[in-house]
Amino acid sequence: MTGLFKEILGAQIWQAAILLCTMMVQLAAARFIGPAGLGTTAVIVSVSSLCVLLIELNLQSALVRAVSVALPLERGQLKGNALEGRLALGLVLAPVAALVASVVAENNKGLIFIGIIGAVIAQELNPGWWLQGIGKSSRSFLLNGCVSLTTCVIAIPLIYYIRKPAMENLLASAVGLTWYGTYWMGTHQFSQPASRLYLRIEEYIQFAWRHRSFLLGGAAVYLYLYPAQLLLASTRTVEEAGLYRVALMPGTAYYAITVAAFNAYYPRIIRAHAAGETEYRSILRWLIVLIFGVGAIAWLAVDLGKGLFGMAIGHGFGLSVDLAPVLIISKAIGGVGLVLRAALLAHSKERLVFRIFFFVGLATLATNMLIIPRYGLLGAAMVELTQETLHLLILLVVLFSISIHAYGSARVGVDGQPESLPRITQDGNSMKQ
Question: In this predicted model, what pLDDT tens digit does every residue of 44-64 receive, in sequence order?
Fold first, then answer.
């Protein structure tokens, strides 16, 4: 358990450093620009995230796996197809989405248009999937850390002196374009002739089609993270969307750290499941207690630190400060849900996990569409807490049922004789030994 704890702690420390820089920028924007400015940022983030979903199709995990097992020549071709194909799709899709969003918006139309395009292209240049695939995850963290630190150093004084809406978003995109573009230029990736661009797009789309089952998970993530802010901006006010974004800050930071922890403990759960029932259940119980305990500490820290949080963001965010402890409870519940999701993935239940996630997201979207226009961000917070609780309960029931079936049938076969436990192969599929 000590080794696993160190892996989780290391991933969380990296992620916490990046989040610290991000939150300092967000707090500066909240204090010096106000709710309307953060509301504009919420629109940019929501729309650009939808573009990224449509371009990437939630293929990050599939790309990492494909890169890690490819031969050198195939690996280079895959890199070119994914990077240049995504960039080309981004240059087509982002301006269209940006134009629609800026036309619908009441204010800051130009900032929204530029912000969406910049955010999409910067994200498509991020080489995280490539670095993880070639076994250089630490360099990926380092590069993202450089982007966050540079943005923090530049953005905070500029926000203080200029105080324009969405400035932090525009600066983050510009810094990301600079760092990520410099990395790819250093690999001579863009030295290929432009005439091959259509072929790159075609081959990337073919890769996406072969892994189309991942799309459901991507759609679920989008439904999970962004529609509430977009609904608040479109059915209530941009200011209210900004207030909700501030209330989400501590919870979003905590959830990002739990996702980093997920990347550390997921492989260990896979190995424990392959080893047998005793080790699998032991590590699962230990992880649930650990993640639940960290979530409880995070909630206590936010609840006791409301005064400090209020001082940091300034006047006009009293409701955001009061809602922050409620929203971090929802993310703490979601952190435990991630452990259960990893356990189900160890049973090779990817489709079931994504379907549950997607349909809970759809139900949440429908509920938000009914609740938010009437109750605003208070209604959005209650829906958020209900969503996480419902999702956790469903995962718990499904995992309990599957575990009983898997290990019960492993003990005694249909003919009354013992059977071997399921083994997880390298491609994630279960098979009998």
Answer: 888 888 888 888 877 777 787
